[in-house]
């Protein structure tokens, strides 16, 4: 049996060391290292941060290939995405104090929409927060069911912030400006998707609450 094949009896240790979860750990390490060098070494930061982001496209592929899909992997993936973006945005708040409130609002929207959407999806009995029917939301259905769309939008979202980061350094200022401008449409799409999934999550949770309240009322 191949070392990558899921054993008949899966243990906690097996899940912890699933291939996609190992990739997730590497993402965390590279993102953390990127934060240590981001103030004074823009190129090193860019390579480390980009590596962490690009590995995001690999862990899901490995999970499906080796039948190693796990709740740990799904949560680890989302938490790493949110944490790495938050770290970069914290730095941008310092460097662009005039835009600090904007970054705070966008960070709040990013974290809130993803947390509520995942919680609502699991509460509704869905296997994943990415399970969105076309009838529920055409935009989210396109965003979550088309991996090429998901990757492209997330890539441009990170590229927009990375461009603002590069613009801080005089030698890369022009490159950073054009990077942010080119990626801006994808960034806007991502924020719209965040608003839509936040609304959808609120409706799912409210609907569940209404059903639970009605079930309780029947017992009286």
Automatic annotation (TrEMBL):
Top-level taxonomic group: Eukaryota
UniProt keyword terms in alphabetical order: Endoplasmic reticulum, Lipid biosynthesis, Lipid metabolism, Magnesium, Manganese, Membrane, Metal-binding, Phospholipid biosynthesis, Phospholipid metabolism, Transferase, Transmembrane, Transmembrane helix
Regions crossing the membrane: 15-38, 149-168
Alphabetized InterPro entries for the sequence: CDP-OH_P_trans (IPR000462), CDP-OH_PTrfase_TM_dom (IPR043130), CDP_ALCOHOL_P_TRANSF_CS (IPR048254), CDP_diag_ino_3_P_euk (IPR014387)
E.C. number(s) listed in UniProt: 2.7.8.11
Cofactor(s) the protein needs: Mn(2+); Mg(2+)
GO cellular component: endoplasmic reticulum membrane; Golgi apparatus
Signal peptide, first to last residue: none
A single BP term in Gene Ontology: phosphatidylinositol biosynthetic process
GO molecular function terms noted in the UniProt entry: CDP-diacylglycerol-inositol 3-phosphatidyltransferase activity; metal ion binding
Catalysed transformations (reactions): a CDP-1,2-diacyl-sn-glycerol + myo-inositol = a 1,2-diacyl-sn-glycero-3-phospho-(1D-myo-inositol) + CMP + H(+)
Subcellular location, principal: endoplasmic reticulum
Compartment list: Endoplasmic reticulum membrane
Topology relative to the membrane: Multi-pass membrane protein
Class of the enzyme per the UniProt entry, highest EC level: transferase
Family: Belongs to the CDP-alcohol phosphatidyltransferase class-I family.
PANTHER family to which the protein is assigned, alphabetical: CDP-DIACYLGLYCEROL--INOSITOL 3-PHOSPHATIDYLTRANSFERASE (PTHR15362:SF4), PHOSPHATIDYLINOSITOL SYNTHASE (PTHR15362)
Protein name per UniProt: CDP-diacylglycerol--inositol 3-phosphatidyltransferase
Organism classification: Eukaryota, Fungi, Dikarya, Ascomycota, Saccharomycotina
């Amino acid at each position: 049996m191949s070392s990558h094949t899921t054993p008949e009896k899966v243990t906690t240790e097996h899940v912890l060391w699933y291939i996609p979860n190992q990739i997730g750990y590497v993402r965390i390490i590279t993102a953390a290292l990127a934060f240590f060098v981001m103030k004074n070494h823009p190129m090193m930061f860019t390579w480390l941060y980009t590596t962490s982001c690009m590995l995001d496209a690999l862990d899901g592929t490995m999970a499906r290939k080796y039948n190693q899909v796990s709740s740990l992997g799904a949560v680890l993936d989302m938490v790493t995405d949110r944490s790495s973006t938050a770290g970069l945005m914290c730095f941008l708040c310092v460097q662009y104090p005039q835009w600090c409130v904007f970054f705070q609002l966008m960070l709040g929207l990013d974290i809130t929409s993803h947390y509520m959407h995942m919680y609502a999806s699991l509460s509704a009995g869905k296997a994943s927060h990415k399970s969105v029917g076309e009838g529920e939301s055409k935009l989210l259905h396109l965003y979550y069911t088309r991996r090429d769309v998901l990757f492209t939008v997330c890539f441009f979202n990170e590229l927009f912030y990375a461009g603002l980061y590069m613009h801080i350094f005089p030698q890369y200022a022009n490159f950073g400006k054009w990077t942010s401008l080119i990626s801006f449409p994808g960034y806007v799409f991502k924020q719209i998707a965040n608003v839509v999934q936040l609304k959808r999550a609120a409706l799912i949770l409210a609907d569940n609450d209404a059903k639970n309240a009605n079930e309780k009322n029947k017992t009286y």
